[in-house]
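Cont'd.
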Amino acid sequence: MLANRSETQIMTKPRSYPSAPVVLPDRTDELEPTPVEGCAGCTELAKVRDWARAGHDMTTVTDCNVLMRKHPEGH
Ligand SMILES: [Zn+2]
């Protein structure tokens, strides 16, 4: 029957899967430098970084990390 034939064609149609979810690179942890103990500057940077992270201000978090990584050179 014609009806059965068209149904079979639909069934054999290849299934398409939605593309995999995009995973944003989250390298925050590995980029995170640690504040030098006893250094007021580093402690301050760590504090600001925590606040920025709480407010999802990743630009400031990155800035603090850059400054903190450079800081040990001045100790
Ligand atoms: Zn420091």
